[in-house]
Design a protein that fits this description.
The protein has about 210 residues and is α/β, with parallel strands linked by helices. About 30% of the residues lie in helices and about 20% in strands. α3 (about 50-60) packs parallel to α4 (about 70-85). InterPro entries: SAM-dependent_MTases_sf, tRNA_(Gua-N-7)_MeTrfase_Trmb, tRNA_methyltr_TrmB_bact.
Length: about 210
């Protein structure tokens, strides 16, 4: 997807320090101070325009949410959505997923969401996929023993790749759906991409997994 550059995006984000955390590294191990409570923290990696993370924050006030998007020109749309929803349990961060360990302490994140990540279909780009073992190693360090990864995509190849990657990493698959919208799963909050692709008749794939630390 080609993103329109918005040179004003950074300044716009910094106008709302109560939502946008400019220097997340400063709060490593101290994110509960940011939210002012001891509620569990869930993060979405690749938040896009923020529809999912804002919807989750509104639906679950007992959980703290952090939307992470590396492109500021995209994150500024998530900011607008967060302002519209106006909930105290949502923050936004502009960072590459490779740098998450600079922002969060070991075991500090209770749950990770990966929604409609770039499939990087070419074999030479496999290491860029957010379900690649390199990233799974990062997630394992961030999540506590009971922490989970929830993954959604419309891309069957990426989903199949992810199923294999998770299994070979000895993760436990606790939920798998090959057609989420025609399943009995309740409480699904759609992303912008999800609405777009499902409207065209594409099935939505979803899985939940956790690390087997026994």
């Amino acid at each position: 997807m080609r993103v329109k550059h918005k040179p004003w995006a950074k300044d716009r984000l910094e106008e709302f320090p109560a939502i946008y955390i400019k220097n997340p590294e400063d709060f490593k191990g101290r994110w509960q101070e940011v939210f002012g409570n001891n509620n569990p923290i869930h993060i979405e990696i690749g938040s896009g325009k923020g529809q999912f993370i804002s919807g989750m924050a509104k639906a679950n006030p007992e959980v703290n949410y952090i939307g992470i998007e590396m492109i500021e020109s995209v994150l500024v749309s998530a900011l607008d959505k967060a302002i519209e929803v106006d909930v105290p349990n949502l923050r936004l961060v502009a960072r590459d997923a490779k740098l998450l360990e600079e922002c969060f302490e070991k075991g500090e994140i209770a749950q990770i969401y990966l929604n409609f990540s770039d499939p990087w279909p070419k074999k030479r780009h496999t290491k860029r996929r957010l379900t690649n073992p390199t990233f799974l190693t990062i997630y394992e360090r961030l999540l506590p023993t009971a922490g989970e990864i929830h993954f959604k995509t419309d891309n069957r190849s990426l989903f199949e790749y992810s199923l294999v990657a998770f299994s070979e990493y000895n993760m436990l698959l606790t939920f798998v759906s090959l057609d989420l919208h025609n399943s009995d799963y309740e409480g699904n909050i759609k992303t912008e991409y999800e609405e777009k692709f499902s409207a065209k008749g594409f099935p939505i794939y979803r899985l939940e997994a956790k690390f087997d630390r026994n």
